[in-house]
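Quick one, T. Sequence first:
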Amino acid sequence: MTQLLSMKYLDERAIPYEHRSFPQSTEKGAANVAKALGFEERQMVKTLLFETDKGEAALIMVGGDQNAISGHLKKILGSRNISMCPRERVKEITGYEVGSIPPFHWQPLGFRSFIDASLMKETLLGVGTGCWGEEILIKPEDLVISSNATIVNLTVREI
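Structure tokens:
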């Protein structure tokens, strides 16, 4: 296998990670990847792209068993009108198909990325490499550095 751009990016920056493979026949979804690799669903990160009505796209990272709270997203993105990017727009922005989008190396300067604060409690996280069947295992703090992400609360309702 030729080295994937996502792994090359980490190697060039001396950011530690582990590469794992799982059967390409595995059904899509974080829960299925977690099961195939022997991890908790929370540890397999969903990389989602949302867009504001102003046309700004942002990367949102939450655990495989989590969903971002709409109100939190609107506040973080600074827009009352947001939506998840359609598949075609995701491909246009990232260069990748939905299902294994790496959370780093493709972002232009100024692109905003956010990671849910609860993921910082995990010892190891799994992210896509850009190729289904291949996964990067990385420490949360190294994921923040490599993706230039801002740590925010995306999933916990405030009292």
